[in-house]
Here is the input.
Amino acid sequence: MIRVMIADDQELIRESLKIVLEMNEDMEVSAMASNGREALAALAKTPVDIILMDIRMPELDGVLCTKAVKERYPDVRIIILTTFDDDDYVYSALKYGASGYLLKGGSVQELADAIRIVVSGGNILNPDVTNKVVKLFSQMAHGSYVAETDLQGLHDLSHTERSIAQLVGRGLSNKEISAALSLSEGTVRNSLSTALSKLNLRDRTQLALWAVQIGLSQMKGEGDG
Here is the structure.
């Protein structure tokens, strides 16, 4: 059973999400909160697997709550739900460890599928949001944002790990990377895990953001025609 917390300052949204999510036999809404502080207090009493987190809430917003949750409960997954397609929020929420970011207004099935993907260790981004993130980091990569430590990390990767990180930054799946680089999917998974360890990154989403941030995803690579 997937235990879900809903953190949103609008009661109607909380109650509506609870009803539709509990129509799924593998999900139960274990806790609800109207702001980030309530979410943290509830989490201390009621363990959950995933939080559906609104961005703009009083007292403690979704971005800072995400940061606090991941610091205290690193295994709890977070999907950010918002009506605001805002670059800064996208960047900050993902930087602090959110595993997904969806715009409100999507279908119930999409949300349920996203929860299952994230709880199983995957990441999910709304396509519109992904485009914004890529543009944001591309701008940063051409400015003074990229730190020397980020570039040093690139040199620490093997040729294969660098190629895989580049394609992850372009949004390719392991299967697509396997085909592009003529590697087995097992090799791709192992190299991906090693790259994350070398770069001290949490997951695939952070690796993708890193690759875009330093400009790796825009470089010509082995998988290019």
